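Course assignment 3, question 2. Fill in each field.
Student: A.L.
Task: Predict the tertiary structure for the chain below.
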Amino acid sequence: MKIEPITIRQITKNQFDIFMLFTRHPAVQTFAKELEYYSNGDNSILGVVLLDLYDQDFSYVILVRDENRQFREFDTKVSFPTKAEAVEMLSNSIKWHTAQNLKSVVHNLPERGLDLFNIVVNQEKIHPYFTRLNEDTQFIPSKKAIIEIANHLSDIDGNFIEQFQSLNGFDARLWEIYLFASLTEQEFLINRTHKRPDFIIQKYDAEIGVEAVTLGRDKNNPPTYLPNEEKLTRPADILTKIKNEIPLRYGSTLFSKLSKKYWELPHLKDKPFLLAVADFHDDFSMTWSYISLVEYLYGQREELIVSEDGSAFAKTEKIPHYTKPTGAKINSGFFFEPDCENISGVLFSTTGTIAKFTRMGIQAGFSSIKQKVLRVGDRYDHNSDSFTPISFSYMVDENCTETWSEGLNLFHNPNAKYPIDMNLFPNIAHHKLKGEQLISWAPDFHPFSSININTIVK
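Answer field:
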C-alpha cells in the first residue's frame, strides 16, 4: 500500500479568515502581526506565523477544530530568531498531527453553533432561495462560507434554523448572518445573550445596540426558485416607486421597530442604538431602492439640475410627506419624528445577500475551477464634480480583496441623543446632515449595488 506524502501548503489571508475571523480576538494585532498562513490537505489543521511586535522575534500557532467546529489554538511555539525557522517547525508540527489523523480536539466547551442545513422545515414551507443555496452547485461557495460563520452563531430566539430555511424568515436571518460577519470584521466584540436587540457590540469603552430589520415581500409576490423576468421591476416603474411606494415601505418597517422602544431595556440604558435595515421586498429590489431610504430618513430629495451650458448642480427639495393608497398622509423625515432621538442611526447595505457570500466563499477558495463569477455594479465616484456613479466589473477569484463590510452605510441621525463616533466604523461609508446638505464619507471602493453573473463552465 502506497502512503501519500503529507503536503503543507501556504494559503491566503482570505482563506485563513473564513475560518478564523470569528475566533480571533481583535486585541491580537496589538502585540503580534500575522505574516503567513498554512494548511494541510483538507484544511483540518491550520497554522499562522507571527512577528512579535515587542521582541521582534517569530512564533507560530497551530489551530484545530473543537467540538463546536470552531478553530482554536492547539500548539504554540515562540521565540524563533528567523521566520524561516518558525515556518519549518510549523510545517513539521502540521505534518505530525496530520499523520496522527488529528481532526478535532475536545475542550469541554458549552454547545455553540448552528447546523443551518439540517432540514427541520416541511418541504412546502422551505424558501426557494434556501433550496438553491443548499442544492445548487453554483452556490457551493456561499453555502460553505455560511457554514463557517454559523459555527460561531448562537440562537437567542430558539428558532434561527427553522426561520433560515422557511419562506417567512430566510431573508431576515441571512441579513443577520451578514451583519454578524461585518460587525466582527469591524473588530467589535459581539454579545448575543439578550433576546433584544439582535446584537450588542462593544469596542473600546463604547457599547452599541443593533437591531436587524428587513423589508419583506407581499403575500401576492412570493419568491421563486429562479427570478421571473416578466416580474422584474422595469426602470420606468422604479422611478415611480422610489418617490412614494418604497419610502412608505421603509417607513412602515422602521416605525414598527421604533414602537418597541428598545432604548428602555435595562441593558441598553444610556447607550447608542442602531437599526440595520435591508430591502428584500422584491427580486433585486435592494439594487435600486437605496435612494428612497435616504430621502425618507432625512425628509429631503436632491435633484440634479443641468444648466444650458452643460454644468450641473444638486438642488435640495424638502419632502413633507408621502401618500398612502388610502389617501392618508405619512410624514417624511424619520430622524425628525418623536422618539427618534433614541435612534443613533441606520445601517444599510445593498450587498448583504447570497451574492456577497458567494464572492467571499470564492475568495476563500471554496469554488471549483469550473465556476466563473463576474461581478457587475456601480460604485461611488470620489470626483467632487461628479453626480453619477462609476460602473465596474471584475472576475471573482481568490486574489480579490472584498471585505464583509464593503458596501455598508451608516446614516447618522442629526438629532441623536447618543451619536455614533465614525472612528468606531472605520471601513464603511458614513452620511451626515450638515445644515440642509447631506455629506458623505466613503472608502476608496464603495459599491452602491452589484450583481453576480454566476456560471458553471462545462
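Instructor remarks: The first helix runs from residue 13 to 20. The two ends are 35 Å apart (CA to CA).
Grade: pending
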